[in-house]
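Reviewers of the previous submission asked for a worked example of the structure-prediction workflow described in the proposal, so we include one complete record here. The input consisted solely of the amino acid sequence. No template or homolog information was supplied to the procedure at any stage.
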Amino acid sequence: MRRTKILATVGPATDPPGRLEAVLRAGADALRLNFSHGADKDHRRSLARIRRAATAVGKEVAIVADLPGPKIRLGTLAAGSVQLAAGERWAIDPDRTPGDAHRVGLESPSFDDLARPGDPVLLGDGSVELEVTAVRPRRIEVRVVNGGLVRSQAGAFFPRARLKAAAFGPADRRAAKVALESGVDYLALSFVKDATDLTTARRWLDRRANGHDVQLIAKIERAEALASIDGILDSADAIMVARGDLG
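From that input alone, the workflow returned the following structure tokens.
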């Protein structure tokens, strides 16, 4: 019996007819749905498709609802994307004006105290790395360390920042409600800081699961989570390590 399990992500690549069935036949044991993107109706539709695909291939498959968490994202780029080269200078600010090759806005619960000179900033899957060169009022100036293509709404990760936002906030509760209605097996909490985040989610879940055994996955994406890893391990049912965000 194969002990290692395969988790596949549901997205645009699995939209064509028969693609989900092919993924399950190829060996996927669980399917992950990212609630950071799309509307509630899209998630409900995807969850229903997963159930139909599992029935079609006669396979039990676990469903993981990956909750958004307090994710920090870049704003929109006027051209949809920008190519950054090593050594170039760029700036990040809270302005919602579409960005370009010189600057970009940032969608964040808080802009103050995000970074200090010398701090790294990782974009997207972590392949694009920036270094903070200066912090000014409503403006973070950066130098490109590792270049690449940056798209609108790309995730922006400040490894040394201490986020004040909870890992299980209003957006996560709304997404979790949709997930529970569709009978998911796991809820994955993004940007968990410590065991308190899991305790909060567990209490909410216990009042709404209606006897369904839904388990909690703690996503380890921040250095501060590593400092509290023992408590997180005691409180979570499973751990997911986000290599791109950890750097």
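The chain has a mean pLDDT of 91. We consider this example representative of the routine output the project will generate in years two and three.
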